[in-house]
Write a structure and sequence with these properties.
Elements (H helix, E strand, L loop, with lengths): L1 E6 L2 E4 L4 E9 L6 E7 L6 E6 L6 E3 L7 E6 L4 E6 L8 E8 L13 E2 L3 E6 L1
Parallel strand pairs: 2-11
Antiparallel strand pairs: 1-3, 3-8, 4-5, 4-9, 5-6, 7-8, 9-10, 9-11
């Protein structure tokens, strides 16, 4: 079992930036691909970004491509999501997730562990 704890969320004005962190503990050896998902009020959870173990493969949702950057520091068991040029429609609870896959995936069902989420609110 892998435990994931997100941090870094908050309130920011449109056009601003935030960096989310996700610290993993426990059986981290079973976590190759790491992903970020988000859920806005009244909407289903959606994929945001994913990164392979080496960091050489990164995959983004079209809605965040060019604005968000996913990265990881395996020595610290931490994954990051740098969010720039934030828009009100980015407002959501952001979740970190871990997968045993070796190829980045946008499918929720392929992630075996999830964090509790961190709230990101972007004001207009």
């Amino acid at each position: 079992q892998v435990q994931l704890v997100e941090s870094g969320g908050g309130l920011v004005q449109a056009g601003g930036s935030l960096r989310l962190s996700c610290a993993a503990s426990g059986r981290t050896s079973s976590s190759y691909v790491m992903g970020w998902f988000r859920q806005a009020p009244g909407k289903e959870r959606e994929f945001v970004a994913a990164i392979s173990w080496s960091g050489g493969s990164r995959y983004y949702a079209d809605s965040v491509k060019g604005r968000f950057t996913i990265s990881r520091d395996n020595a610290k068991n931490t994954v990051y999501l740098q969010m720039n040029s934030l828009k009100p429609e980015d407002t959501a609870v952001y979740y970190c997730a871990a997968s045993a896959l070796r190829i980045a995936s946008s499918r929720e069902g392929e992630y075996h562990s999830w964090g509790q989420g961190t709230q990101v609110t972007v004001s207009s």
